[in-house]
Amino acid sequence: MTASVLPLVAGPAPAQPSSRLIQPQSLRAPDTPLGRARLARGWSQVKVVRALMLLADHWGWDIAAENSLKVFVSRWENDTHRPGQTYQVLLCAIFRATPAELGFTRPAAASTLNERLTALESVIEGLTGRLGEVAA
Fold it and tell me: Which segments within 45-125 are labelled E, that is strand?
């Protein structure tokens, strides 16, 4: 006795969908390392927030509430604020990227350091001069 298999739908089988990620047209992000990392995965900011919450919960870490995280992710992507150490670790883990790849390590510009040193030397000279005046 042989069992026969009846097709559920008449006609030829449809082509198997591609496993390639198709990004919706509405998915956008700022041109920053963090924004590009999110887009490369086809994630919305909401998905990033949920991933942060799930991983933090799994690790037993306390982080901000969902509504606050939505604001944080936007600020981090727009580069108006930098994530703290806890969030940097979480973001690196969920995106499987290094801190440098997500833009968390920024070498200080040499000119900025030179400007700060010059300003500090000027302050020290001014204070030294005033000390001399007070002692006299």
Answer: none
Rounded CA-CA distance 49/38 in Å is 11
pLDDT tens-digit map of 113-132 = 778 788 888 888 888 888 88
Q: Average of pLDDT values for 50-55?
A: 96
Is the pTM above the cut of 0.70?
A: no
* Contact yes or no for 53/69 (Cβ under 8 A): yes
Calculate the dihedral angle through the C-alpha atoms of 107, 75, 73, 78, rounding to the nearest 10 degrees.
-70
* DSSP state at residue 8: S
Mean pLDDT within 69-96: 93
User: Which residue pairs from 63-69 have beta carbons closer than 8 angstroms and sit at least 24 positions apart in sequence?
Assistant: 63/87, 63/90
Q: Which residues of 45-63 are buried (b: 16+ CB within 10 A; e: fewer)?
A: beebbebbbebbeeeeeeb
How far is it, in rounded angstroms, from Cα 126 to Cα 71?
43
For CA atoms 107, 111, 117, 119, the dihedral sign is: negative
Rg over alpha carbons for the chain, rounded to the nearest Å, is 27
